[in-house]
Structures are given as structure tokens and as C-alpha cells.
Amino acid sequence: MKARHGFTLVEILIIVVILGVLASIVVPQFSSAASDAQISSLRSNLLAARKQIELYKHNHDDNLPAVAGESGTDFERRMTTQTDINGDAGTDYGPYLERLPMNCFNRLDSVRVGGAAAGANTHGWRFDPATGNFQADDDQDSNGDGTPDHINL
């Protein structure tokens, strides 16, 4: 009698089922870790930008890097280049940021000054010239309550 080598169809099906069960257990853990990493990155970017805005304010007689009516370009220029005490081109202070960080939820690195509340998803960031608040501007709403998830980070 000749010896048979290899796996039967039943053995292969059992292995495929076991691999499927293991994959269904492991994959959700990886997707949760990726989401946690994005939130951590967003928090880190917000913290770094907010600290540099405070430093700008300290160096510029309590003036913020943009006022009502100015654009995100004004904000970005003052934060990424050297300025004088008035926030104009100079060599006294800065730069505070090498470049604006990217919001990892909408992949934008621009900032808007004032306007609609954060969460409009038109820019990466929103800067409130009245309060100095710097927020994520993405519209990620994972629980569907109508409030963007990252406004209060």
C-alpha cells in the first residue's frame, strides 16, 4: 500500500477556521491602537502649538499671533518666522514653530483665524483671536452626537 502525504480538505478547512477566529480577535485591537495613536498625536500637536502661542504672547507684550480680521497666513508667518516686538518681520523673537503641524484626522496643516466654531473641517486648526484658543478644526464625530470629538482636547 502506498503512503499518502499532504493534508486532507477537512484539515485545511479546520486550519482556515482557526486562523479566521484568531484574526477576528487580533484585528480590532490593532485598529483601536491606531485610533489611540492618532488622538495622542493630535494632543501632542495641540500642546506644542499652545505652548508656543503662550511664548509668543509672553514675548510680544501679551499680544496674540493674530487678531480679528487677520488671516491664517498672518498667524503662520508670525509663528514660523522671526519677528520684532510688534509681530512684524524682525530678528528679536522666534521662530516659534518650524511649520504648522498637520491635523492627522483631516490631513490639513492650515489655520483659520476666527469665524465658525472649530469643527468646520475647512482647515487643520482654528485659532480664536479673542481668547487665544487653538483647536483642531476636523469634523470627526465618532458617537454621532453632532459635536466634533476633538474640540475639547
Outline of the structure:
It is built from 2 helices and 3 strands; from the N terminus they run ααβββ.
Q: How would you describe the overall organization of this protein?
A:
There is one protein chain. The chain is mainly alpha-helical and 153 residues long. The chain has a domain at 38-136. The chain has two helices and three strands, in the order H-H-E-E-E. A three-stranded mixed sheet has the order 1-2-3. Strand 2 (125-127) and strand 3 form a beta hairpin.
Topology:
Blueprint: H1 9-59, H2 72-80, E1 111-113, E2 125-127, E3 134-136
Structural key phrases:
mainly alpha, three-stranded mixed β-sheet, 3 strands, 39% helix
Low-confidence stretches: none
The strand count comes to 3
What is the N-to-C order of secondary-structure elements (H for helix, E for strand)? HHEEE
Oligomerization: single chain
Q: Please state how the strands of the largest beta sheet are arranged side by side.
A: 1-2-3
Overall form:
elongated
Summarize model confidence as the mean pLDDT. Answer: 91
